[in-house]
């Protein structure tokens, strides 16, 4: 029976009603019933006006007018106003929680670590907790912060130190975690590490190390034995030489000695024959053949010894002249002991005079040990083949990719379109024509569709079979202009829908620059921004997306293709897609349902806002007239959108979008439209009532699994770009799973069998193709499930560089956060030696130095010059949580600078092999700004030389840039409303302190940071008499991209820095070709800035 207050109230009402209907009851009874009703009502009212707070709990009130109140209610019974006030109960007792995390150690070993925390909310902050986190505050906060702290702390220790210094590790975790939790008003009563397990590979490596140590001891014994045998050989040879001298003297004086030896030999031979009996064949040793004395010395003019990299020639003669010619780094090919054994073996095989052995050991080995050359040079890096991402066919058996290789002898680029067998990584050349581009798979077989750039400016389509390399391609139509980014989808009946991007003229037709007439005047007029963007002045033409139908027919086995007239999908809409300057194929996608694309909001100022929307264009035949684009709505999100993709299994569409309307580095949130043919409202993954989102990472490009049940994403995560996966359901509470660990994934292609083909790079290799098994990778926390197919540079082995040179560390930043930094050592690093410091500051500022290849800022290149390169990820860096990224706002010269100062202090206190007395600093873009800021502050006096590339010198001049949203966000307002913010962080205000020698590079086509910034800084240095140089390329933008220019850039930079760091100049005196033309003085080789 129910006894709720509402039921009691209803029963009392019924009793009163029945009493009134009876009519014959005494008045006293009626009065008693009324009294009961009144008492019952009072009881119900009293019950609703009271609430209990149990032991170990606290409560707060939510009122319908004032919201959450400030008063905290302790244990016991308290009053409330029914309906108007709602109590919210919190359990304030300590609750245990286990959080497991897969992370990497300082020496890059993966470890599974479990942290047990006893947490409770801070009682006096319960109202704030409810407003920001809700009642499930621990679920929202603890997993992410525990993971982040574990990763940052564990990264400071080697794998062995995690075991030997576990107490120290636990202490750091406890301290950092308590600080992080305090920011969310969560108190931690206990933090303990309950589980620590290394990967099976590491465990096996430890066992292998023990075995290796035993083998090393055995090898040492063998080497020592070889040394002793060598010494014995030398002594024996000396004895034999002395014996030969005595015999020679005896022969000179008398032939009797020879006769005596013959008699002794004859006696020995007779004895052997006697013992042989009746055998027909008898073997005699050399001792019984007499003494053969030859005159002169046998000379071996040349001996050849094969190393891993080829042939090293050691010409050698009786005059003891040895020339050691070396083409690669010695460390890693042979140890000194190994070389010794090979020399002894060589002498034994070639019967070289043993008196040369001591000479070989004393002359050649020191030459090898002293050599520290490297194969990894700017020329080698810039001329290395550069591969595109790999695109698999539907079966996952073949992949298409392009490669380009620059030749510094011919000054030409070589192109190649290749087909790779994914079962073994072998490739076959499909075409080496530079006109062939944009190759993709056509259908589910082995057919390829590609474009050819024609001489008249048009583009033609061609079809061929990847397995028939010598077959003649089939023409498949053409369009009257230059296009790119072709995407196709099979729509049935032998037809394909085709979409591509191209430039549209103001009248909506496809633009062809080859047909453009030259105007009689060069004047350009603008009435609205942009005037110029990135490296280009805007013209009347705009980007657009075009679509058409490609039909196939077969007559007597002969297949032909026909392309319908292309249709401008955006004509008359006022929309532009892809979004310039960097928008590409990630701005649109195609399916049987039509096209989705990204375009900026044309009603807003394009230079002060980043808002771009995703639009849907419904199509069936791809020959119909362009319908009106339908905008996809995203409640509460008004920032930039990108990466719209269709599901292969349904009309679902996924994409990512930011929240802020004027913030280009806001967190990307993943969104999904379940069926775009039925509705265009997108649902957000991990949405939260405070709009921060439940996952503290920024989702990158997205791709569906073939069955449409999973979405894969590329995500910046702890200085890597990793592959993550999540169920394709916006209501999921399970956070995305990490599938890869090291490197930077740049491309992904899910296949029907569940695998994903990824393309990636890392510090050591510019192109790696791999398979990922998502199930195995997720189960193993990304320690398994990745299988290498092909590494373009053999993971650095091509140039003698390796992962052993790379490490990382975390240190306390300027606030309650940790900062990350990479350490890159030379391949010939030797314990006990010291090396100059290269202090690298990345640009952005919302960016990061990641485990990725770069031909512009290659970390390994500087290390191979002889530096210990330390690359910092201070405040503003991405991939370490949105709060660290957002922390740069109005702090350009604040937190990041102090982070770098603390990084310098960490180096001096912990890295004994770094010579900070020979330190240099370098950076580009925001890194260039920071170089200018450092130049004007105390940290600048610690460096021997500085280098700034395309940096910002004067923050008050930022309106000469093009994308003003960037400046207005980072300085928290406009120049006229917040002038003080711009002035506060202005390097130009501190030029009175500039005194460190500095190189500046600034290019003329850099419209993001115009060349005046670099010229002004150079003028200051020159006016102050500070040694300085200025290099500029009139045909380069914010980056130096042309190989010839890039080589000049590298040589100039290395010569400048090396000269001050005490390292040899990179350029050679005879190197006259790849050198910038000095316009007002002689070329200076020393790099010291003097003239």
Automatic annotation (TrEMBL):
Gene Ontology terms: cellular component: mitochondrial prohibitin complex
UniProt GO BP: mitochondrion organization; mitophagy; proteolysis
InterPro entries, per database record: AB_hydrolase_fold, Band_7, Band_7/SPFH_dom_sf, Peptidase_S9_cat, Prohibitin
Cell compartments where the protein resides: Mitochondrion inner membrane
Domain of life: Eukaryota
SMART domains assigned to the protein according to its UniProt record, in alphabetical order: PHB
UniProt-listed PANTHER family: PROHIBITIN, PROHIBITIN-2
Function: Prohibitin probably acts as a holdase/unfoldase for the stabilization of newly synthesized mitochondrial proteins. Involved in mitophagy. Required for the switch to necrotrophic growth.
Record-given protein name: Dipeptidyl-peptidase V
